[in-house]
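Recall the central idea of this unit: under ordinary conditions, the amino acid sequence of a chain determines the structure it adopts. In this exercise we apply that idea directly, starting from the sequence alone.
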Amino acid sequence: QKIINENENVMVCCGRMGPMCIPVYEIMEELEEERPEVKFYSMAFDSPESGVIRNAPECRGFMGLPFTMYYKSGKVAKATTSIQNMQQITSNLDQFLS
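Accordingly, the structure predicted from this sequence is:
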């Protein structure tokens, strides 16, 4: 919650170390240098701190990991479920966090 409140643009990926999540984590790492205006943060789906993502109304009904949240000025701008590719992620960043 602190990271979300202290940064204007935040992308949080909440998942596990599995085949649907690892590609998203790798894309986030790649984008960190290209997009210094965005704070990229990953968290383990089963950790207590990830309750803020798991229990968010925007994630209700989500089935596939990871859950990914895009925050603009502390508010949810977009929420997605399951694996995403580079184009989908950069499109969301451009549309919701620019």
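The two ends are 21 Å apart (CA to CA).
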